[in-house]
Fold these 2 entries.
Entry 1:
Amino acid sequence: MSTERAEAIVVGAGIAGAATAFHLAKRGLGPVLGVEARTPAAGATGRAAGIVSEQLWDRWDVEVVRESKVEYAALAARAAPGAYRVNGFLRWTAVERAAAALRPRVEELRAWGVDVSLIPPDRLADLLPAVRTDDLLEVAYAPGDAVVAPSDLAEAYLAEGRRLGVDWRLGLTAGRVVRRGSRWAWEGGGASFEAPSVVIAAGAWSKRLLAEAGHPLPLTPYRTQAATLVPSEAVPGSTPSFDDLDTGIYARPEEQGRFLAGDGTEDVETDPERFPPGGDPEFVAHVAESLGERLPAWADAHLARAWAGVCVSTPDRRPFIGPVPGAEGLHVITGFNGFGVMRAGGAAARLAELLADRGSRARERLRSVEPGRFPGEVRPFPPRDGFTLQAGDAPEY
Ligand SMILES: Cc1cc2nc3c(=O)[nH]c(=O)nc-3n(C[C@H](O)[C@H](O)[C@H](O)COP(=O)(O)OP(=O)(O)OC[C@H]3O[C@@H](n4cnc5c(N)ncnc54)[C@H](O)[C@@H]3O)c2cc1C
């Protein structure tokens, strides 16, 4: 088996890997080789809802979403028309405990420069006429939030990366990453590639790849579901996305007057090679029941399709981005805890800065997500929701 050589290898053509390869090439690091076991966006990226929101619980995430927004808007304008659309994002509750959690979060977000405010519940009818507002206590609204088409963005990153010289190899078998002397190699299905730097951007598969490379990190893949529904009255594309704090349901407008709805995290580990890819009847029933109560005008919506994807959780619900401890040249960008589409562009730009410059500014910009923050034995842990209102290990909302 002959071995091809590169300066950096990126493993995985989900949105994180596609963006990382693009940014590495943009910074002049090369040759960059991308390897994808399946097809672009074949993992979580191709199954994501595509909500992009700065209503988050960590300041680093807010900054990275903001950087991603700027990049996605420009990328869509250049290469993927319609793949980025500003429609705003709402969070609401009719429960006092959740309202008490929402108020200080909005204050903190505003202090971080996020354009979000509490609006009178009856104003919601102007933004989302389908919603029943009579019992709502608080509504938070961020008009600058957006929706994206995640697969289109990944494809656009791939295309722009190729133009900058990235050599993407697609449809390979699921190979593995191994150490070869002072270099790293990706090998599988008769192919072999070697480089001083490898970036594992393999989503839920990263856990296995890192363990096989001899450098495991605490990661738990888990399943999460979404559905597209068709209401009798078309939902305008300008309708804000929302997260109902009381039911755990989120939704966004889709093409052709449809909307996409999902709920949170299944709290058991899932093997990304063996998971039920369709939506469960219980999930579909939960979505229908929850929406029917809060949005009676959508209660007659029929199901177009429902599906599941596999995301990956970390013990503190923060991603792993940067050098893998004790493994010179091995890097990772994963552990997005279910909201990686909205952060991939900014996160990849920061990682590429680190690989290209190795300076203290680049290290500082990834400090809070460095993969070495859980030294010692890797222990199993249950996945938890990532896209929450509250910070901490076990947020109620
Ligand atoms: C139902 C659902 C809804 C979601 N909604 C949102 C949302 O609204 N907003 C948001 O921000 N996020 C959302 N997410 C989360 C988001 O999809 C992920 O965080 C993000 O797509 C992760 O991207 P990734 O590139 O890290 O991983 P992936 O997209 O999973 O890509 C990993 C890639 O690596 C490849 N690979 C695996 N093993 C190998 C190997 N050995 N060699 C080569 N290639 C390999 C895979 O084939 C795959 O293409 C949602 C996810 C789901 C499932």
Note: The chain has two domains: 4-46+150-219+315-373, 89-143+221-313.
Entry 2:
Amino acid sequence: MTQSQEFPIICDICVKEGAQLRYVSRSYGEEDNLLVIENVPVISCPHCGQEYLTAETLDEIERCKAAHFRRLRLENFLEEEVWPQIPDSQLGIRLSTAEEEEILGFEE
Ligand SMILES: [Zn+2]
């Protein structure tokens, strides 16, 4: 059985029909680490007043967060470990993602 917005959504909490799907933006982390994810589908139930995310949505958010923090780790690594050791003449060279990953040992 597939469920979409065309059909009544059954609330996972009180198991009544009529829950609404809406899209919100959510933010994670703070200041320099801030990650904002737009259009996160939230199910909100008018019967029990609960709002929740589906397991699928949570997985997707975890993936976004992992990618985000991985990117931050890369930037910090470059700033703290790599750039200070590079002669000025070589700064400004842009690495490809594959080159970055190789340097950082992110290859799987
Ligand atoms: Zn409910």
Note: The pocket of zinc ion is lined by residues 11, 13-14, 16, 45, 47-48, 50 (CB under 6 Å).
